[in-house]
Amino acid sequence: MKKIYAYATLVFVSSCGKTAKQSENLLELNSKKEVLIEQIDSLSQVLNSVELNISKLDTNKRLTTVNSIKAQRKLFQHFIEVQGTVEADQSVELYPESSGSITNIFVDEGQSVYKGQPLIQIDDSILKTNMAELQTQLELASTTYERQKRLWDQNIGSEIQFLQSKAKKEGLENSIESLKAQAKKLKISAPFSGTVDEVFSKIGGLATPMMPAIRLVNLKQVHVESEVTETYLKHIKKGTEVELFFPTIGKNISTKVNQVANYINPNNRSFKIRIKVNNPNSELKANLLADIKINDFKQNGIVIPTKLIQKDRMGDSFVYTLKKEKDAYVVEKTYIVQKMTYANESFISEGLLEDALIVDKGARLIKANETVIIAE
């Protein structure tokens, strides 16, 4: 080791002596400078090799040992995470259209019903009585009209008698239709096929248009709704991929955004999104909470663990990489551009090549241009 340093010093002194004694032109001096630099570089490599061997044999002085990983090129995805709730496409509370006493409830809670099926009957006894009277009158009026019509067709009788019988018959028919329409308002029927979720009314109780009687739900087709801050408006569109997770039941679903609202709520500066979900087994219930991950970035590139990235005093990001020099590795400070970070991984858009050796464990204990060894 001493011989190496002595040789380098002798070369340098000798060269300086010659420079002082001889008046050489600038070209010759630059030429000698390049020779000296080559000699110094060569000696530095020899020195690094010697120091590496010393570190292996000398227990009092060792090179820093680090771990390394290779920069990998793979698919990187970034997600916006929000929460939402499950809403049934067909879910309604049914109200009676007219007031009255409830005489019959035809269904139970949890029962499946078809569209148009009667659910609740409100007292219609008075309407039935009135309808029976009108029906009797209609029968007589129809008979009278038919007779007047036959006579009128034979040019017998007066026209006024024929028109009066016709008007009376049609008036009674209209009255009966009106009563039938009123009777429908005293009956609650299913507007769509589904399941009776809850019955609020009781037989003998009073039904009013101000109080719901039945809640009817169809869970075959549901959707998840969520409000997202307007900051992400440019990243979310119809067809954007999303991942849904329902923590209560431990279910995952991969799907897409079906609708993005065109209105931003001025109170919280957010907009609504809707995600349709098939629910053939009715496993998803109305108002069930959902964790939503919206995929706003997806690209292949260099991906490294975020923990390896450091910042200098200027706030620029860098990692320590290793350059092989014979039997040792020299630390290099490599500046990078960190575009996205998600789930403890960062997407590097500039600064790193695939398979570059990055210092992992020990990165906080080293500095640039330091010679290190990699743990086996």
- Main beta-sheet annotation: 11 strands, antiparallel
Looking at how many chains there are and whether they match, the oligomeric state comes to: single chain
> What share of residues are in beta strands?
35-45%
Structural class: alpha+beta
- What gross morphology would you assign? rod-shaped
H/I helix tally: 4
Keywords:
11-stranded antiparallel β-sheet, 22 strands, alpha+beta, 5-stranded mixed β-sheet, 39% strand
Describe this entry's structure for a reader.
By secondary structure, the chain is α+β, with helices and mostly antiparallel strands. Among the domains are: 2-57; 64-76 and 300-374, Beta Barrel (conserved putative lor/sdh protein from methanococcus maripaludis s2 fold), CATH 2.40.420.20. It contains 4 helices and 22 strands. The chain has helices at 2-21, 26-57, 125-153, 159-184, and strands spanning 64-66, 68-70, 72-94, 100-105, 112-113, 118-122, 187-189, 194-199, 206-207, 214-229, 241-246, 251-256, 259-260, 270-278, 289-305, 310-311, 317-325, 328-335, 337-342, 345-350, 357-359, 371-374. Strands 3, 5, 8, 10, 11, 12, 13, 14, 15, 19 and 20 form an 11-stranded antiparallel sheet that branches. The longest helix is centred in the first third of the chain and has 32 residues, at 26-57. The radius of gyration is 45 Å and the shape is rod-shaped.
What's the short story on this structure?
Helix content is 28%, strand content 39%. The chain is α+β, with helices and mostly antiparallel strands.
